Amino acid sequence: MWLKAFHLIFMVTWFAGLFYLPRLFVYHAATEDQAGNERFKIMERKLFWFTIPWMVLTLGFGIWMLSDYAWLAFGKMMWLHTKLTLVALLVVYQIYCWKLMRDFANDNNRRSHVWYRWFNEVPVLILVAIVLLAVIGRGYGW
Q1: Mean pLDDT score of the chain, rounded to an integer?
Q2: Which 3 state secondary structure label does DSSP give 121?
Q3: What is the 3 state secondary structure string of 55-119?
Q4: Long-range contacts of 6-11 (CB under 8 A, 24+ apart)
């Protein structure tokens, strides 16, 4: 249970960053002054690098649980495979956020604040799917 507790704690922290970083992109894309532009660059960089250890710890504890007991117990169930696929998509999302952050840092953003508002919803949808899979999918043995 300790592994699961720490996995969930680190996951919540990682998601906090995944929710807020794209929100910063929304505001950054809408800013029109140079001071605001520079301030958002700093905020985005600091938040991005703050989230990396939480992502690594989430993945590390998840892999630990898989190797310790979860794969043997649930490895043949579709919910776990789907959840792991969604987690992989979150890692890709994080990497894409790094690319977007670099674009902003180089004053090379080509997207509108509206696009970032939609982009900001991706981790919410993935979180809902993962929680439903882990709770309901596991409960029904799917």
Answers
A1: 93
A2: coil
A3: HHHHHHHHHHHHHHHHHHHHCCCHHHHHHHHHHHHHHHHHHHHHHHHHHHHCCCCCCCHHHHHHH
A4: 6/57, 6/61, 7/58, 7/61, 7/62, 7/65, 10/54, 10/57, 10/58, 10/61, 11/54, 11/58
Query: Which residue has 């696929």 as its token pair?
Result: 85
Whether the Cβ atoms of residue 43 and residue 17 lie closer than 8 Å to each other? no
pLDDT for residue 74? 73
Count CA atoms closer than 13 A to 111's CA, side-chain side.
19
Q: How far apart are CA 1 and CA 5, in angstroms?
A: 6
pTM score, whole prediction: 0.90
The alpha carbon of residue 108 and the mean position of all alpha carbons in its chain are separated, in whole angstroms, by 23
- Enumerate the domain spans of the chain: 2-139
Q: What does the pLDDT look like over 36-45, one tens digit per residue?
A: 999 999 999 9
